[in-house]
Amino acid sequence: MNPSKLNLVIQTHPTTNTPNKVKPLEVSAEAGVEAHQSVAFSFWRAWMWWLPPAFIALALVLYFIDPFIGDWDGMDYTMLSLAGYPSSMALGRSLFIFGNHALFVVAHALFRVQPENAYLIFKYAVVVQAPLAAVACWVLAKNLTRSFYTATVAALLLVFSPVFVLYGRTGDDRCFLQSSY
């Protein structure tokens, strides 16, 4: 093979002006703490942006709340939660059953809630999650876009979505958490 053709195929790597040794970035521990505090402080200073979607979420869920055990499997779900017995259904249902079981044990010990009213504990635990999900959506959108307006619109879109209100009002935390993320 001709040497000139071989040089066209085999070329050396192009050089750059990057030095061989790069100095590591020196950051003090105090700077990390200050950055963390400023992020937390900016969240609390931005309350006027994330608090209205949280209140609207709570108001909508309370307005449309279902007075009964809401879903087709609600009775089975409540009975398994009371007993702390795992379900044969998949998709993380056992996580919610054991979480609700722990919630019932605590509520029963503190407030003497009887098993026939346990579904109310599970239902209102989901109601409490509604504004928290709206705030979590706001924080996520704020971190992604760095815009208060965009974050608030994203939280309001979640809050006014029918799926969010539907699962928030029935007290079905399995579907509620899946719909909010």
What does this structure look like?
The structure is a single chain. The protein has helices spanning 3-9, 29-45, 47-63, 74-83, 93-111, 118-145, 148-159, 162-170, 173-180. The protein has one domain (49-180). The chain is mainly α and 181 residues long.
Key terms:
181 residues; mainly alpha
**Can you summarize the main beta sheet?**
none
| DSSP strand count | 0
How would you state the average pLDDT, rounded?
A: 78
Order of helices and strands: HHHHHHHHH
Structurally, the number of domains stands at: 1
User: Regions with pLDDT < 50 over 5+ consecutive residues?
Assistant: 174-181
Q: Span from first to last CA?
A: 61 Å
Secondary structure: elements and pairs:
Blueprint: H1 3-9, H2 29-45, H3 47-63, H4 74-83, H5 93-111, H6 118-145, H7 148-159, H8 162-170, H9 173-180
